[in-house]
Amino acid sequence: MSRPDLNLLVTLDVLLAEGSVAKAARRLRLSPSAMSRALARLRETTGDPLLVRAGRGLVPTPRAIELGAEVGRLVTEAEAVLRPAQRLDLARLDRSFTLRNSDGFVENFGPALLARVAEEAPGVQLRFVPKPDKDSGPMRGGTVDLETGVVGGSTGPEIRTQALFRDRFVGVARAGHPLSEGRITAARFAAGRHILISRRGLDRGPVDDALERAGLTRKVTTVVGGFAEALALARGSDLIATVPERYTGTLREGLFTFTLPVKLAALTISLLWHPRLDADPAHRWLRGLVKEVCRLSSPSFHQDEEPLP
Question: Are strands 146-149 and 267-273 parallel, antiparallel or unpaired?
Fold first, then answer.
């Protein structure tokens, strides 16, 4: 039995990342015809078409998606083996990292993270960019180095993840809101005017599902795309917002925060990054720093929760 050509692993990794024969060819500095021949060899070797045409582009088959995470790991580990060992010198590190986060992360964790970076690696610059969706494309393309958020169905199968902390949803209203006096029942909560947070513009969310199970409905007065917008509206009106507790700690200062009278599933906020950066010493340092800052900046765990490893 002939030994497989391990160079095909690199080719497959780039093809899956780019989703285009022409783009993959440019990235590997090959001619389009050479890349087409390599794809033909991959199809013959795996017994699967791997990438099939959809309109003007190519989409991966289920087998390609299954292989994607494993191939990315193998290529990254092989590159790490062949890379000369270098000791990370933080004092001399001159590098910029782009972090993509939902509103609330910079306000809550940014100051402490920047202080630690300035202390340990003064030549490092952090660039914070907004996170309008859960698309893994920016990480695949290399425009985003690190991301925080909830791992979802649209997260790429090859993306590495590491849990940061657990969070829960809480209700928020202005100081002096009628809900700030007396016991907050599900009926009182549902009777208020609400803000729905949906980046996709949906007209209902988990709160509506929980109220429906209790035989109640609420009136959604407005829909916004982020936590900061929702809390700004709640601060200046009688509207009620429902937001993650820890992720919005600083944004909620001066507002009335209360435990929801309906049960919602807890959230796990995670770090996400592309496997090409998995073994990079500087990136590993940054990941560890973010995890430590989030641990130290977050309040203690709720009594019904287990700490994250």
Answer: antiparallel
